[in-house]
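thoughts on these tokens:
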Amino acid sequence: MTSAWIDISVPLRSGMVHWPGDREVRIERTLSMERGDSLNLSSVSMSLHTGTHMDAPLHFLAGAAGIDGMPLTATVGPARVLEFPGLAAIDPRQLATRAICPGERILLKTANSRRCWTSDEFVSDYVYVTLEGAQYLAERGIQALGIDYLSVGAPTGEGDLTHQILLEAGIWIMEGLYLWAVEPGDYELICLPLKILNGDGAPARAILRPAPRS
């Protein structure tokens, strides 16, 4: 296993997959040296919940903390990648086999990394965490949870409840990770969202490095 940092972020680009109903990604070169301008300058228009991003409690809990209120320690430090191949959803039965401890940062590697990011069309049958799975993680007292597609919850209204359970428990959510090249195991994680005042979420850059062997 390499000891170098691994980028688990999805590149942002115009026309990429986004949550149905959200604003699509448009990145425009407003000034261009190729067109004779003195510099290159670009603008971007998109939902804050596109690509690799984080959800703040404010996303689903009225009056809760925005993304600018996230403690840096929530998503910087030791993390564990858990792989769940061949599942449609992750529930307590699978999670209970992984000895999840309080305070952990857990990243869920599923078939999403292999099959969902290859299309610019939204994949509605992505792997997600069930309501019962979210409650199990909340009871375990983890501090951060990541998954490898656009939502940790189901693509139905149940997904909103999944978010609420996690966020009410103080669990910071990372979504849109790309974990295909990452083996399950222990890592050092850095995932930092843009500091948007009162933001309900924010784009993020996420990287992993294998934890030193003791």
In short: The chain has a mean pLDDT of 96. The two ends are 15 Å apart (CA to CA). Residues 6-10+48-210 form a domain with the Glucose Oxidase; domain 1 fold (CATH 3.50.30.50).
